[in-house]
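Quick illustration, no need to memorize.
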Amino acid sequence: MKLSAQFSFRTKMTLDLLLLCGIMILSSYLLSPLKSALTGDHIVTICASLLFWLFSARIMGLYSDFRETPFSIEWVAFLKTLGFFAMISSLAFFLLLKDYGYTRREMLMQLGCIFFLLPMQKVVLRILFRKIKLKNGLNKKVLIVGAGSNGMDFYQQYVEKENFGYTLAGFLHEEQLLSLNGSYLGKISEIDTVLAKYETDEIVITQTTDDTVLEKIVAAGEKEGKRIKIIPDYQRFGPRRLNIEQIGALPIINLRNLPLDNLDNRVLKRIFDIVFSSLVIVFVFSWLFPIIALIIKLSSKGPVFFRQERWGLNNKSIICYKFRSMVSHSRDIDEHGNYQQARKNDPRITKIGAFLRKTNMDELPQFINVLLGSMSVVGPRPHPVPLNLLSKESIENYMMRHLVKPGITGWAQVNGYRGETRAPILMKKRVEHDVWYLENWSFWLDLQIIVQTLVNMVKGEKNAF
């Protein structure tokens, strides 16, 4: 038996929900001892509270794998979950579900009990899991085939600290290495002898080898009844989040597994986009639009809006809306057929346009794009088609930006990579930040980028022109 991440996750979540149920029933009884604790109204509030807790825990990462981390990190995740749970519960129960008799006294008592009891439960679970793992015969002895970077990474992350149910039987490698500290058991070709001589439960193959050698390792392992795992060596393609999924009977290795590939993350991001863009359109755009439109019309001839084709999700064309910031007769393509990016002191930019670009207010109409679903509040900035065609051939990973919806603001922009990208290194840095964002997306990262964008709008940015 091995204490897997799935087992740990299910155990912690189940015990949390049971404890929450107990706390809610007990607090209701203590505050109203003459009233039944399980009326229909209370069942509704309990079920709603459990759903709110699961949603909060999912957003805050409370049920992540904390086996390699100190308890303080899990405790911080718990505090964030509790705070978010308290916020959405207050909004729901005291605005939407106020007829169900759930009082503020009950909520305060429950939050207090959760604050003290859940961390205690998690400490007890850690101690219990540690004792189970240390119990004789539980950890599996693993034979690592290959002592290269892949093999040493596996040893250091999953075997050395004994947090994943493994202890080391030894290494097989084509040559003896001093760094193995006496754990070298022989060459890969000697696997039959090694398995006969040393006690081993599992074999982990971490070295790319030809089919003949691989077949020999598998045959030798299965002959002795050993479980075999293979860790493919794909680091040569760069640091990536690999994912293996089953399509029918075929296992498929996904070289780039993104957080927004998960349906629940996409749904969460879309809900936020709809709510946030609706609030901006109703409370900001509705009164600011007539003012900006009037100033644009009075300052120069031409339309209020600027419409441009750009590439969105999966390279599909979208029409991006902005307030017009240049003279209406300006050209995107110069006399030599080259695309003209906006630059500092660009003569095409009007006076009001310079202000709009400096404050990012020229982007306000893109909240319509967000509401309609072609853009997101946060994501890689969409580039004009000529710039895409030019950059895709010269900038590594450029087209990976289109694996997610483009955004009004993004990780590259808040880190200073906005404006003109005439030098290739500037576009390269922008793409690096965009790819980092799509590989590390989280709800809280989006909020951080929005806050940073607002701060930059107030203090001003040197590359905003």
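Residues 172 and 441 are 38 Å apart (CA to CA).
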